[in-house]
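Input/output pair, single chain:
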Amino acid sequence: MKLAIAGVRVEVASTDPSLVLAVPRAAHDFLDASSEAPDLALLARWRDLTEEDRGPAVFDSGGVWQSYEREGSRRVRFVSAAAGPVPYKVASLDLARRSGEVWLHRPCYPAEGPIDVLEHPLDELLYNQLLADRSGLLLHACGVGDGDVFIAHSGGGKSTLAQLFDRHAPHVRVLSDERIAVRRHGDRWTMYGTPWSGEAGFAANGEAPLRRLVFLEHGPADRLESLSGAALAARLFACSFPPFDDPARAAATLALAAELAVSVPAFRFTFAPRAAALVALGYPC
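Output:
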């Protein structure tokens, strides 16, 4: 199984017939049948993780995953209350060699049925790091195929705006209502849909030249205002997903956000949830 998101390819394979790989429904649109070599090749296999040797801790997300250094590679350990103290999954990564392994603790998985090896948050963690190496970043944003990226934290209006496009401007393709990838190719910026959807469930494989960055805010009236200045880069970084467990790649993400802030027109859009908001953005309904 090979996925291509924002032009970055991750391949997962297994040599064990008892480990059948699942493809989540949201990822079907991102399956890659090309002969292009993967940017990261992962081998998935069962492994007893009862006595798993972690190595020095690097980062603790405060949630299900922690990052460690071990034998020259980065390991990401996944635990849950349901599985107890034993990790249900460990990813051992060597991004420099474009390879890695994902170890699954057999007692934590059903006896039969396919397994989603890249189950969230591993998929997003991998792409955060891979994009950082390729002049890219993930944004907390809704995006449409015309090249507009609408940025906001949770509750800021991303899914609301996506639903407005779906109802009142169906000719405009919504690529995601939760995560949009952005990459710089020379002096060009491109935005990409991702399989990570929000409440409205929009996730499509598509790309477009990046036209505008629009920061969303709820309000009683529709108003589009230009943004600029040093604070803009900080706003972008605050709505991005840098690999916090890797200081060098986090710094690269911050630098890229600063470049993006001075390269693409940015706006603040205050809007009410009605069709007129799309007209205020320049979209005919």
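The chain has a mean pLDDT of 94. Residues 2-132 form one domain.
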